[in-house]
Structure formats: C-alpha cells, structure tokens
C-alpha cells in the first residue's frame, strides 16, 4: 500500500522568539496549497499543543508578515509536555502531558508537525518522535548554538543589533574616554559576542567557551592607553566567566526547561575594570533588543528557504528530520543528531584567529 499522503500540517514556534519566525511560517503556508496540504497554526508553542489551542492558517493570514518580528502564533519557553509544571498545595510538581499532545494531534487530524525552535524545541521534538508523532524541525535561535546546521535563522539579525549598538557606543566612549561594557545574549555559546563584537569593532570580546583572566583585560586597556586610545569597548557574552569563577546568574525559574536565567556579568566586568585601571566605565545590556524587530534581509531569505524546505520534507514524509544549512544549501539531518551537542566557539575557529590577528583580545 502506498504511504499515506501528508494532507494536514501543524506548525508551532517554541522557545524564545527571534526575527524570522514569521518568514518561516509564511514559507511553509504559502506553498502548502501547491502540495495539496492545509496548515494549522498551534498557539504559544508546545503550550498550545498540550492545551489544544490552534487556528487555521490561510494565505491571507501570512500575507505581509515577511518583515514582521516576533511570531503571529505566539511562543513560550515553558510548555515542555514532558516537564509540565503544575501548582499543587502551593508547590510546583512536574507532570508528563504527552497523552494530551497525542490526543490533540489526532483530534486535529495532523499528519505531521513542523516545530520551529532552538535546542529545547528540538529535544522535545525528538522525544515526540519517539512517542510516534511525525515531527520536522526548523532551526531557530539568535544564539546559533545548534551543531547540525551552519547557521540558525535569527542570529544574523541579533548580530546586526549588536554591531549597530557598538557603532553608537564607540562615539560616546571615545568622546568621554570611557570603557563601555556591552552585555549580549547567547546562553552558553559565544557566537553573538564573537560575530557582533567583531562587526562592531569591539576591543575585547569575552565568551563562555574561554574563561578570561582579569589581568589580561586590564593589560589590553593599558596598552590601548599607551597607543593614545583612551577608550575601549568590551563585548561580553552573558555566559562568560573569569578563570576559576562561576557564570553570573540573574535567577532561576524551575518552570523552564533550562531553569537558569543568565545575566549581570557586564556589571561585574565594569566594576573590576574601574577599580583596577582607574578608568571610568559604563554598562549597556542589550537584552531583548537582540530578539525584537524586523529580520535582516539575510534572515528573511534564510527563513523563507527553511520554511519552504520543511514543507517539502513533509511532502516526502521525511519525519524526524531537521532542515539544516550546509554551506549555501539547505539539507536535512536527523533531529537526534541536531541535539547531540551544542555548537560552541572553538579556539581554532577561523573567525577567532582573524579577530586575534586584528588585535581583539579575548582576555587570555
Ligand atoms: O535562547 C535565546 C535567548 O535569548 C538567550 O540568548 C537568552 O539567555 C534567553 O533566550 C533569554 O530568555 P528569556 O526571554 O526567557 O529571558
């Protein structure tokens, strides 16, 4: 018997939002008719999948959203069906809601689910696949930390925000002879700091993968003083830490798949620089500016290609696969492979070597 044709696709956006999500939704929904498929948009990520909240997506719903930031479906980083927090007698208990997911998947008559998200979303997608659901992944995250793809969409847009912020901070740092410390996102990976810092001409880039030495930072600032450069820009990833010290945390939220909330390292770096070099410092935390607003042209194209490729994968019944950029082509990899390791910045990465060659210090 010929395998059942894929007729109905569910689509959701999981985890933290980022520019390009709407472009992917559009890239899936617009070609759907040509494949004889219809698309159901699941609301608020996996939360909507568990709670049965969704809406039909037609061409008219996705028209005009290519350049729109955020996600028309809503997203959440708290809806893991395998780790569903429930409040009981003032205490949070963790339950498994996969049966609710299966019920909704069947009630909605879905043949496949396209899950757009980062590491957390792909982990959940892998587990849902093991439970018998037909899942296809699309790699999203400003952090760019998924190892099976050369690039996740959203990263370029975040890098653009960091670079333009550094451009602006450059002029004011220079006028006032100050050290400005800019904190960027990225969780446990330093890609945003590396790419944003390089593009914005940072003098010092601090990343989680390479614990830094305080002395080396002071040395670099001093060297610049001797060269007549009385200001410096430090681009620090939220997950960066000094040698022998721990990451700086803002807090914990056990309802999230990863409970740690990172943040605060820029204040520590600025304080230490001021105390040890005598230079006046200021801090800018870019925060969610890096996730908001319109995607760059590069991300619009990449996201559209990812969306169109995901629906093609669905038509070929390539389940358990994630769309992945390999060079300039979109290919597919198994979701299990995609979640095996985080993609971290290696010391021998060409970009790191080039950054060092133009005088950028990594605090080592
Ligand atoms: O994974 C994307 C990301 O923006 C990280 O870089 C950051 O640590 C985290 O999400 C912030 O999450 P929230 O929006 O929940 O504060």
Explain how this protein is built:
This protein has 364 residues and is α/β, with parallel strands linked by helices. It folds into two domains: 190 residues, Rossmann fold (3-Layer(aba) Sandwich); 135 residues, Rossmann fold (3-Layer(aba) Sandwich). It is 37% helix and 21% strand. It is built from twelve helices and 15 strands. The strands form four sheets. Strands 3-2-1-6-7-14-15 form a seven-stranded mixed β-sheet, with helices on both faces. A four-stranded parallel β-sheet has the order 9-10-8-13, sandwiched between helices. Strand 14 and strand 15 form a beta hairpin. Helix 8 packs across helix 9. The longest helix is centred in the middle third of the chain and has 22 residues. It is elongated, with a radius of gyration of 22 Å. The N and C termini lie far apart (63 Å). The mean pLDDT is 97. Bound molecules: 6-O-phosphono-beta-D-fructofuranose (F6P). The site of 6-O-phosphono-beta-D-fructofuranose has 12 residues, from loops.
Topology:
Blueprint: E1 8-13, H1 21-32, E2 38-42, H2 46-51, E3 54-57, H3 59-62, E4 84-88, E5 91-95, H4 98-107, E6 112-117, H5 119-130, E7 135-139, H6 155-176, E8 179-184, H7 191-199, E9 204-206, H8 214-226, E10 232-237, E11 249-252, E12 260-262, H9 265-277, E13 281-285, H10 297-315, E14 321-326, E15 329-334, H11 335-340, H12 350-357
Parallel strand pairs: 1-2, 1-6, 6-7, 7-14, 8-10, 8-13, 9-10
Antiparallel strand pairs: 2-3, 4-5, 11-12, 14-15
Helix pairs in contact: 1-10, 6-7, 8-9
């Amino acid at each position: 018997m010929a395998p059942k044709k894929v007729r109905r696709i569910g689509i959701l956006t999981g985890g933290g939002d980022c520019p390009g999500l709407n472009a992917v939704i559009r890239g899936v929904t617009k070609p759907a008719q040509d494949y004889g498929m219809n698309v159901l948009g699941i609301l608020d990520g996996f939360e909507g999948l568990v709670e049965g909240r969704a809406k039909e997506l037609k061409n008219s719903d996705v028209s005009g959203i290519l350049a729109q930031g955020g996600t028309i479906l809503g997203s959440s980083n708290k809806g893991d069906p395998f780790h569903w927090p429930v409040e009981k007698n003032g205490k949070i208990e963790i339950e498994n809601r996969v049966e609710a997911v299966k019920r909704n998947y069947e009630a909605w008559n879905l043949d496949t689910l396209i899950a757009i998200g980062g590491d957390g979303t792909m982990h959940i997608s892998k587990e849902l696949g093991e439970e018998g659901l037909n899942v296809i992944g699309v790699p999203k995250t400003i952090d760019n930390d998924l190892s099976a793809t050369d690039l996740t969409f959203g990263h370029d847009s975040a890098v653009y925000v960091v670079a333009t912020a550094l451009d602006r901070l450059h002029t004011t740092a220079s006028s006032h002879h100050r050290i400005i410390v800019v904190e960027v996102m990225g969780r446990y990976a330093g890609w945003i700091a590396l790419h944003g810092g390089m593009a914005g001409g940072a003098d010092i880039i601090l990343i989680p993968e390479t614990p830094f030495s305080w002395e080396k930072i002071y040395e670099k600032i001093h060297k610049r003083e001797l060269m007549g450069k009385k200001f410096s820009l430090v681009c620090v990833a939220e997950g960066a830490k000094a040698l022998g010290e721990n990451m700086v945390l803002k807090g914990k939220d056990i309802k999230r798949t990863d409970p740690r909330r990172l943040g605060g390292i820029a204040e520590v770096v600025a304080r230490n620089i001021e105390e040890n070099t005598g230079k006046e410092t200021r801090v800018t935390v870019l925060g969610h500016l890096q996730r908001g607003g319109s995607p760059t042209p590069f991300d619009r194209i990449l996201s559209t290609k990812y969306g169109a490729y995901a629906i093609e994968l669905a038509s070929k019944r390539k389940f358990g696969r994630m769309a992945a950029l390999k060079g300039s082509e979109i290919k597919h990899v198994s979701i299990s492979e995609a979640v095996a390791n985080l993609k971290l910045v290696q010391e021998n990465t060409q970009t790191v070597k080039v950054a060092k060659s133009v005088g950028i210090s990594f605090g080592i």
